[in-house]
């Protein structure tokens, strides 16, 4: 099973203090850019891969999606999502995305925010998503950027003037990276940007847009902690579509 770090009580407690946890979608600085990639949701079937607290599931329902499914490997995440969700139209289910199986041509949109870089076998997942999408259905996701995941030890370097640089050594060496983010031993997968894209293409997707996201001046002014993010892309956003034929 995919590592389930979010059920680590110490990790979950600290994760709950993030803006993403407290403010939901509006607490994610890349959310405005993600919205521009989304299709019309009215009347659609939507699946959130790694749904966390269920923020996007509730957004999709509010935008008129008629069937919303949130999947997560973490029991604690799913309990929180269920606690925060009222009304009908959303189902939550525990699922290891690397073992996911879904009915063919049953989904209009797969959405995922910062979850897929935890998965070792991304090829199998993309194959599953493609067969589960209706013709012209979409996959919209964000993941940690390969520039960010490349070094074996993640961290800024600074020269004598204080200018920060992010090392990209080991970029060509794909595979597991160990991050000490809120807890020791968090396992993530580094793969080149070309590998992400070519795997999607090999599984039949058409790439619609790639955004190597970074904050704009207004976001930095409102949240100075984002200033360093203009030095390198930490995440990327991608929209892909299943062809009509």
Nutshell version of this structure?
The protein has 245 residues and is α/β, with parallel strands linked by helices.
Structural class: alpha/beta
Order of helices and strands: HHHEHEHEEHEHEEEEHEHE
Strand content: 25-35%
Distance between the termini: 34 Å
The number of distinct helices, counting runs of at least 4 residues, comes to 9
Shape: globular
Largest sheet: 7 strands, mixed
Q: Going across the biggest sheet, name each strand in turn.
A: 3-2-1-4-5-11-10
Radius of gyration, rounded?
A: 18 Å
Number of strands: 11
Helix content: 25-40%
Residue-averaged pLDDT? 93
**Which regions have little confidence, pLDDT < 50, spanning 5+ residues?**
none
What does this structure look like?
The chain has 245 residues and is α/β, with parallel strands linked by helices. Helices cover 27% and strands 25% of the residues. The protein contains nine helices and eleven strands. It has helices at residues 9-15, 19-22, 31-37, 55-62, 75-84, 122-132, 146-149, 193-202, 217-222; strands at residues 45-49, 67-72, 90-94, 107-113, 133-144, 157-158, 164-165, 175-179, 186-190, 206-211, 235-241. A seven-stranded mixed beta sheet has the order 3-2-1-4-5-11-10, with helices on both faces. Strands 6-7 form a two-stranded antiparallel ribbon. A hairpin with a 6-residue loop joins strand 8 (175-179) and strand 9. The protein is globular. The two termini are 34 Å apart. 37% of the residues are buried.
